[in-house]
Amino acid sequence: MTSSRESADPTEPVPTDPTDLSSASESPDPAERASLRSPRIDGLAALQETPRRAQERRLAAAMRDVIDQLVSTTATTDELAVAADGLERFAEHLRELPAGQTYRGFAESANAGQATAGLQPGDPEWYAFFDHSPFIGLANPLSPPVHLEYRDDQVHGTVTFGAAYEGPPGCVHGGYVAAVFDELLGATQSLSGDQGMTAHLGVDYRRPTPLGVPLTLVGWFERREGRKIFARGAMYADGELTAESEGLFIAFDREKFAALLAARDGDASGPTEGG
Questions:
Q1: I need a labelling partner for 51 at 20 to 30 A (CA). Which of 74, 78, 86, 219 fits?
Q2: Domain residue spans in the chain?
């Protein structure tokens, strides 16, 4: 997606609309923002790597490698047939194993902060859902994965996209660039002191983003106006800006969100995380 400000100065404030939810403007100083940061990024790192979790992550990493090799292989027809036979047998084996959700919560990192399966904040397993995130999850084979961390009043990150994410030749598909910004700014907006859902995401693509190159991400909280939270971010390859983004998040009603989560989970139960 692209911003409507293609030729605008990227340092200009994000424009507000006349239907703003509040005319009040709130912008904590950097020290205060740092103290308000969400624990959701640190939560993934805090998870204990139990034997079961280690195998989940190992399996996901192997599947990422299969996907990457599959989209770039020059194998013969017969070789592909042998590989397909093997994968079909493996898929059938997985279907025969017990199935169910091994965590409660949300794999989307911007929605952190709610109770999961009766756990309390401070319990590392509170954050188990992050391991299944489609962008930061180490146990999700669709995840690149993106690595994020807080540094003072900013969020910094790194990601390397393989061949499976190709758009233009040798370059990352713009949709994945946008999705990474959604993840980055979803983490960044927590520096406002609250959590919000994405209402608008604008991306300016400055130059092609290369595959196979470590990309650097930087996100920063810009301002808050009532329930509206504004954040911005940038992506770099070898020090050169490849894309930048602006995001608008709306602080959500925690009770309503908890009700949606409860309705989704219902009484379903599955295997639990264990040794």
A1: 86
A2: 30-58+100-265
Q: At CA 85, angle to CA 52 and CA 145, rounded to 5?
A: 40
The CATH architecture of the domain made up of 30-58+100-265 is: Roll (3.10)
Q: How far apart are the first and last CA of the chain?
A: 43
Q: Tell me the whole-structure pTM to 2 decimals.
A: 0.73
Per-residue DSSP letter, 109 = G
| Angle (CA) 53 57 61, round 5° | 170
Say whether 115 sits in a helix, a strand or coil. Answer: coil
| Spatial separation of the C-alpha atoms in residues 35 and 117, rounded to whole Å | 27
Q: What percent of the chain has pLDDT above 70?
A: 69
Handedness of CA 5, 6, 7, 13 (dihedral sign): positive
Q: What is the DSSP letter of 166?
A: B
Q: Looking at residue 271, what is its pLDDT? A: 47
Nearest to 171 by CA among 179, 182, 159, 163: 163
pLDDT tens for each residue of 215-246: 999 999 999 999 999 999 999 999 999 999 99
Do 187 and 179 touch, CB atoms closer than 8 A? no
Rounded Cα distance, 101 and 166, in Å: 31
Q: Buried b / exposed e across 91-124, counting CB within 10 Å, b at 16+? A: eeeeeeeeeeebbbbbbbbbbbbbebbebeeeee
